[in-house]
Specification:
315 residues, transport, mainly alpha, UgpAE/MalFG_permease
């Protein structure tokens, strides 16, 4: 009878005591996958650095130099002292404060309309196109149209006269003109925010809306307790982009509708910057005004995000 001999098992030789284990070499594919996102993001980062951040730093540095006879000479904070001593720039800052106060209205309008479209009110497909149409129009065209509509003898005042409200000097009254221009700006641009809100609704859990309907929640309750918390990040994004649009994209309307008047009442920082740079040939002072505008947008944007995040956690 043949004796049983166990199968031979090849084993690695034992390591001497205290010798560290050899390091495992990471697969080549793993390293490539790790650096792939950096390679893909690099072009966008370079564009931002070269075309955004670097010019911003040059502009800030230029704001501390002089104009005219003092061109290129360091003047410290003289340009900023001149800015805050200029009544037109102070008016522009007051109007910025007004825009910040009106910002929730500018965000609520497309938010409510997007809610109605998402809930499929009758004609919602038609409304989607109609609401977005003004966003494709040039600000110059929009300004020219509303110059005709809001003229003292224009159609809007004619309709008001029929109901006994009398004519309103929409673009000639210093207390009314800024509200008229902002209203036109909101009408002309809320279509883009509407699209963003509709994209946000596509990520909202539909079962939450169904549960609210089953529980008998009213539309205001559904908006407050379901839609707003579910779209918190979308709302933050729309708040910031709408604020940037109000502060940096109204030049066309201002130029066509009021040219900063009457009596400088519709001045905004971007219009003031154009006046200093284009008409008065004071680029250093315009750079100082641009720096102030950037700081305003940065502070207001961070404050908005902080407030919205805090309110979202409380809900």
């Amino acid at each position: 009878m043949t004796g049983y001999s166990p199968a031979r098992v090849d084993r690695a030789p034992a390591r001497p005591a205290g010798e560290p284990a050899p390091a495992r070499r990471a697969p080549r594919g793993t390293r490539l996958e790790r650096f792939a996102p950096l390679v893909l993001v690099a072009p966008a980062v370079l564009v931002v650095l070269l075309l955004r951040l670097w010019p911003l730093l040059l502009g800030v540095n230029f704001s501390f130099t002089g104009d005219g006879d003092r061109n290129g000479t360091a003047v410290g904070f003289d340009n900023y002292v001149t800015l805050f001593g200029d009544p037109l720039f102070r008016t522009a800052l007051r109007n910025v404060g007004l825009l910040v106060l009106l910002l929730p209205v500018a965000v609520a309008i497309p938010g409510l309309l997007a809610t109605f479209i998402h809930l499929k009110v009758p004609g919602h497909r038609v409304y989607r196109g109609v609401y977005f149409f003004p966003a494709v129009l040039s600000p110059v065209i929009v300004g020219a149209i509303f110059n005709l509509l809001l003229a003292f003898d224009g159609p809007v005042n004619a309709v008001l006269g029929l109901v006994g409200l009398g004519p309103v000097d929409w673009l000639g009254n210093p207390g009314v003109a800024i509200f008229a221009v902002v209203g036109v700006q909101v009408w002309a641009t809320f279509g883009m925010a509407l699209v963003v809100f509709l994209a946000g609704f596509s990520t909202l859990d539909a079962s939450l809306l169904d549960a609210a309907k089953v529980d008998g929640a009213s539309l205001p309750q559904t908006i407050r307790h379901v839609i707003v918390p579910g779209l918190s990040r979308t709302i933050q994004f729309v708040f910031v982009t709408t604020m940037i649009g109000l502060l940096t994209s109204m030049f066309g309307l201002l130029y066509v509708m009021t040219s900063g008047g009457p009596a400088g009442s519709t001045y905004l920082p971007e219009y003031y910057i154009w006046i200093q740079q284009g008409q008065l040939n004071q680029p250093a002072l315009a750079s100082a005004a641009s720096t102030v505008l950037f700081l305003i947008m940065l502070v207001v944007g961070l404050a908005e995000i902080g407030i919205l995040r805090r309110s979202g956690r409380e809900d």
